[in-house]
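Input record (Table S2, row 283):
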Amino acid sequence: MALDSSWFTEPVEATGTAFSLKLGEKLHEEQTPYQKIEIFRTETFGYLMSIDGCTMVSTRDNFLYHEMMSHVALNSHPDPQNVVVVGGGDCGTLREVLKHPEVRKATQVEIDERVTRLAEQYFPELCTANNDPRATLFFGDGIQWMKDAAPGSIDLIIIDSTDPVGPAEGLFGKKFYLDCLKALKPNGMLVQQSESPLLHLPLISEMHQTMRVAGFAQTHLFTFPQPLYPSGWWSGSIACKSAGALAERLDASAVQALDAQYYNAAIHRGAFALPNYVAKALA
Ligand code: SAM
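Output record (S-adenosylmethionine complex):
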């Protein structure tokens, strides 16, 4: 059945799939120097932000992505004090990062200031940590920012970007990973949103290979549900500068204090369990 214009649909030609949400109304549309941003009111998912026709964030299900893109890596690092979020302009990841008392400094490097200004208007609940004294909101290209970063200065880099096309393409390349490696402390880590383990496995496998070729000692994949994104099943990839087991900082009271809706210690451990076909592709 074809859907009429009262639905937002994100068709993905390459995978022959589409995701739809029943709409209320379109509230905003603008073409920035980087991308086209639209805001809709949906019938059941709250507000929806799309960029270049791709779903980015909804009121109802963003907690899955934001909690998993921050807490899994933060609790896998022995002592994350200096954290950089590349992209993430809706500020939801930054908010989760700043729930960790051990984080002393968190810098968000978003190329498009309009994403953040619209998030402040339509997703104010994601922007509640923007005035935290530990937070810096920098607007500019994450690729250039990382090139200029002080060597050996960062504990954790979180790449919360759009898909690997347009301004985000370079964030999935070897040159960028080399700059990240240089900017990380010896025990530093990077975590990057890495698309769907069902639809994009070759991309994930290539990403892990590129990270290792760039010089990361080891890579790990974790997965989580995300209804808004193609296939509804998404992943994050962790790359570690040094070899060794990931830390597991899952002290019950510290995890409880995160006040998360999805993330907990069992979810943390379970997220690294990979289906056979995925493990085989990454071996
Ligand atoms: N989680 C979402 C997803 O997977 O679709 C992405 C959310 S977040 C809104 C993605 C952000 O990455 C966008 O706001 C975009 O402007 C930003 N971005 C893309 N390329 C970038 C770059 N080179 N440097 C900094 N930010 C970038």
